[in-house]
Amino acid sequence: MNITLSWRHGRRRGLAALFSAAALVAGSVVATAAPAQAADESITVNFSVAGGSPTYRASGWIYGMTENGANPPDNYFTDVKFRYMRAGGAQLDSPGGWVSGKYDRRWNATRAQLLRTQSLGGQFVLLVHDLWGADGYPISRFPGDNGNWADYDAFLTRLIDDVRATGAPAQGNTVQWDLWNEPNITLFWNRPQSQYFEMWKRAYQRIRAAFPSHLIVGPSFAGVPSTGGWWTQYLDYVKANNVVPDIVSWHSLPGDPVANVATANTTLDSRGIAHARPYQINEYGASNEQNPADGAWYIARLERAGADGLRANWAGGSNLHNDLANLLTHNSSGQYQPKGEWWVYRFYGSQTGQIASVTPSSNYDAFATKTSGTAKILLGGGRTTGNIAVNLQRLDTTSGIVQNNQVRVLVERIPYNNGGAVTGPVTVSNTVATLSGNSTTINLPHTAVDDTFTITLLPPGGSTPSPSPSPSPSSTPSPSPDSSPTPPVGGACSATIETTNSWPGGFQSTVTVRAGSAPVDGWTVKWTWPSGQSISSLWNGTQSVSGSSVTVRNADYNGSIAAGSSTTFGFTANGSAATPTATCTSP
């Protein structure tokens, strides 16, 4: 799919509402002015003002998981404290979906991604319109054409039954229902507004009756809240008809979540519409804002606004269903590699304890946390370059960091690398600072507008933290014949462990599970660690541990292996690298 939209010119994060088709339209163009240059600014972090614990509200994506739900590997999700996946089979069999008689493939992909999201501890946001087929292609019909709702009712019956068959109970917030994406633009809703309102009411009532505790999301508006026009017309309708969504949503492409939330509060409060749950900005980050600096800025602003965020996805075709919404890339061998912005989310995912207060500047904001023995600051920008003075105040209110009026300051830069793979943050400085009045100032030379910085505070005598590195490029584990050890006979299976990367105190391994001369339907792999190793993260399987013994069973999506073929799962582990002998059994 290759549709180019016309966008309003403006600087990044201009507050005007912009039309969007993120995640669903490849080749969209955002025209922006060049970023400002050399604007020295300062921000302040006050550690005496502490908020709650981080909830990683910005760690969600729209699409970014393979069609079968198998990839990317688990660690790329768990390392960033993944919270949300928003999907519904867009672009599969295009034109596809219910209206084209091709619902099944889109539903099968949605089901696989839903189950994988839940296995990773995330919340799945179901895009109903994509399953219908309204993903940017001209389609033959919309719900309620010519006053006939029979076809849409049949579609909802099928979808409700399919969701129920996944095991999602009527009670329990296991699925969020996003009824229609960007209904205020003709790319996705090419019918009168009144017909959309009737569709909303019918879908809302059907889903509420079938799943009383599932949350309904909307309107997923193409733009940001405003005090008039389509936004307020929608609010007036849902209020008058008692079909107010559980979670109010919009898109920030670009936009400022803090300003958007203030406007949303004004428009909902004036109508007496309760909004007890956080707003959901379920597409944020225009295509030219997907870099470490802008990504970190959106994280800081979402946290400041108290809104949940799902990062937009500007890929198309098969790339839409992969690469964690463009946070990852592939090398020539098809192995996953993280981009610079993935490292931003990884640092964000490592921030624990209590949230500290930050006073932003006009172009920079930050997210800061403190816990015993460390404090961390993720800096966001993306609009200008120049020196950034980060004023750290009331360090006496931290725990286990300041010793003899000194603190160690580790500054790292996360490079954009023109959107290519990034092996990790780059150390800028690692020094011991002497405090003055329980404070110190760190000056950051911001010369590349798309790069960003992190600051880690440690006790002065402490060593530089060395978290387990991200797994080196990891292969796509899909069942395929290869030239590994001779397969076993009959319906049996074999398993081979291979160390693919190692570092001080840890390693990564891939386990190949191979069927014999007959297909395998379900497998279990077991081994025993020789010297105290332990798994820190595992993907494409489900593990259980008893002492040094490890048992891994297949995931829902990779238990069936054709005769003579194989699948893989992988893990990272603590301890010295080891390749114990593994056994495989099949029911």
Describe the protein in words.
The protein is α/β, with parallel strands linked by helices and 587 residues long. 19% of the residues lie in helices and 30% in strands. It contains 10 helices and 29 strands. The protein has helices spanning 74-78, 103-119, 128-132, 150-165, 193-210, 230-240, 257-269, 292-305, 323-326, 340-350, and strands at 41-50, 60-62, 84-87, 123-127, 175-178, 215-221, 247-252, 280-284, 308-311, 328-330, 336-338, 354-359, 365-371, 374-380, 386-393, 406-414, 426-434, 440-446, 452-458, 493-503, 506-515, 520-521, 524-528, 534-539, 541-546, 549-554, 560-561, 566-574, 583-585. The strands form 6 sheets. The protein has a 9-stranded mixed beta sheet with strand order 17-16-19-14-13-12-1-15-18. An 8-stranded parallel beta sheet has the order 2-3-4-5-6-7-8-9. A 4-stranded antiparallel beta sheet has the order 20-21-28-24. Strand 3 (84-87), helix 2 and strand 4 form a beta-alpha-beta unit. The longest helix is centred in the middle third of the chain and has 18 residues, at 193-210. Mean pLDDT is 86; it is low at 1-11, 13-38, 466-470 and 475-490.
